[in-house]
């Protein structure tokens, strides 16, 4: 029996093409997914990687061999696949490795209505099915192609009205990923001039990694925004489900500030609604949500936890520090494009620059994520807990790793990586000096 535990991850299937993932594995996975969902139809999309069309085709063959019809929407961003799954009420499969290098590919699976399939919600069953080499049923079903890009764009524009916006000039860095495919159609007809960067679809990522979370990958965007005098810049990751924002000065707008801004807009439509935020977003997010009459709910890091809480609470919106944004009106799924439209609508409704607009959502200084390689994660976490737990006025919680709240309002979270021997530290305090002091104090213990 083949062991696929290294390929079937917590939330998706991912690996090196030709070594860990090939057409035979994907064909068997398509059959296993078809058996899991039971048909009658599934929808499949893929990104711009060289390997993606062939793998998507093999997956469709496997599903069709189980008697399940397949709608292949071809090139798509991940949130476009979620749109297809939601609007058609069908299970779906998206072929992408997001921001990973060109040699990787993978599959994100969802049930009808874009409900996620993860380790505890079907992915383990599919893996066992594939490992056991369950024989095909030998049935045949239809595979049809359908273009949903225009429908996806119309749906997003219905959720955010930009018709009254002042004219805006926006630089968009697609990183040679799927934003280069979706942005022109989504923004067509809007009072927004798009200055494109790296819109050519190229899964080899010739200009920079399609991972805007790494500051080095938005340097070109920052320079271009200042050079052309743009009102803002947007950077998408490879599968265009995450969006990062840069203001007119070329400065990054933190995903926490975007979360707070979008939450305020969603609460204006649905007063008293619940907003989800993970525990390492800025504490400004729950403060601002509460100030606008909403109910903030704090969760662990990870999209499965956000989506579970969205479903449990009926939340209207959720945001993460990693620039994943989840909308009840988008089947509780994440879409960076919709968050970007909200930011641009807010900017276009008033005359000031984006830096002034977002200032009110930036209340504290933050370290960003600081990683430390350690020999024993549990031992170092215990050392931090022992050091800070005995101090007056300090509050500890272990919802996800260890969060330490200090009496002066500063806080930090220390979490173990699930896949590497790392501890991840995030610090927030009143100003940069306070952040640096607390960060260095914690790291001295972690790295001792």
From TrEMBL:
Cofactor names: Mg(2+)
Gene Ontology MF, one: metal ion binding
Gene Ontology biological-process annotations: carbohydrate metabolic process
Coiled coil: none
Pfam families: PGM_PMM_I (PF02878), PGM_PMM_II (PF02879), PGM_PMM_III (PF02880), PGM_PMM_IV (PF00408)
Domain Alpha-D-phosphohexomutase alpha/beta/alpha stretches: 7-131, 152-250, 259-364
Alpha-D-phosphohexomutase C-terminal domain span: 369-443
Highest taxon of source: Bacteria
Keywords assigned: Isomerase, Magnesium, Metal-binding, Phosphoprotein
InterPro entries referenced in this protein's UniProt entry, alphabetically: A-D-PHexomutase_a/b/a-I, A-D-PHexomutase_a/b/a-I/II/III, A-D-PHexomutase_a/b/a-II, A-D-PHexomutase_a/b/a-III, A-D-PHexomutase_C, A-D-PHexomutase_C_sf, Alpha-D-phosphohexomutase_SF
Record bears the keyword Metal-binding: yes
PANTHER family: PHOSPHOMANNOMUTASE
Similarity comment: Belongs to the phosphohexose mutase family.
Name by which UniProt lists this protein: Phosphomannomutase
Protein's organism: Actinokineospora alba
Native organism taxonomy: Bacteria, Bacillati, Actinomycetota, Actinomycetes, Pseudonocardiales
């Amino acid at each position: 029996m083949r062991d696929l535990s290294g390929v079937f991850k917590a939330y998706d299937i991912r690996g090196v093409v030709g070594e860990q993932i090939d057409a035979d594995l994907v064909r068997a996975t398509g059959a296993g997914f078809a058996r899991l969902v039971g048909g009658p139809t599934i929808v499949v999309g893929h990104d711009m990687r060289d390997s993606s069309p062939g793998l998507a085709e093999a997956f469709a063959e496997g599903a069709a061999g189980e008697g399940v019809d397949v709608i292949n929407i071809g090139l798509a961003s991940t949130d476009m696949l979620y749109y297809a799954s939601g609007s058609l009420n069908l299970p779906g499969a998206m072929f992408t490795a997001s921001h990973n290098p060109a040699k990787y590919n993978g599959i994100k699976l969802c049930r009808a209505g874009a409900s996620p399939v993860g380790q505890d919600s079907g992915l383990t069953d599919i893996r066992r099915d594939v490992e056991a080499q369950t024989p095909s049923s030998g049935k045949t079903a239809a595979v049809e192609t359908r273009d949903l890009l225009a429908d996806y764009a119309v749906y997003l524009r219905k959720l955010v009205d930009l018709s009254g916006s002042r004219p805006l000039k926006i630089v968009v860095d697609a990183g040679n990923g799927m934003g280069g495919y979706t942005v022109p159609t989504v923004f067509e007809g809007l009072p927004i001039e798009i200055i494109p960067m790296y819109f050519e679809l190229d899964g080899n990522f010739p200009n920079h990694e399609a991972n805007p979370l790494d500051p080095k990958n938005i340097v070109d965007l920052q320079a271009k925004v200042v050079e052309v005098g743009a009102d803002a810049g947007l950077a998408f990751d490879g599968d265009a489900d995450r969006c990062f924002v840069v203001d007119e000065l070329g400065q990054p707008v933190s995903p926490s500030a975007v979360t707070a801004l979008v939450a305020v807009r969603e609460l204006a439509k649905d007063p008293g609604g619940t907003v989800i935020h993970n525990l390492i977003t800025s504490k400004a997010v729950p403060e601002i949500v509460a100030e606008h009459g909403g109910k903030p709910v704090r969760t662990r890091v990870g999209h499965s936890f956000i989506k579970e809480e969205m479903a449990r609470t009926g939340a209207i919106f959720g945001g993460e520090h990693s620039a994943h944004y989840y909308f009840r009106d988008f089947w509780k799924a994440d879409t960076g494009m919709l968050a970007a439209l909200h930011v641009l609508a807010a900017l276009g409704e008033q005359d000031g620059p984006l830096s002034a607009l977002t200032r009110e959502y930036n209340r504290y200084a933050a370290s960003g994520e600081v990683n430390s390689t350690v020999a024993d994660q549990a031992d170092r976490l215990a050392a931090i807990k022992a050091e800070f737990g005995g101090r007056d006025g300090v509050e500890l919680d272990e919802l996800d790793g260890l969060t330490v709240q200090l009496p002066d309002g500063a806080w930090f979270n220390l979490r173990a990586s699930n896949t590497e021997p790392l501890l991840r530290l995030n610090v927030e305090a009143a100003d940069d000096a306070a952040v640096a002091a607390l960060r260095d104090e914690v790291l001295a213990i972690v790295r001792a």
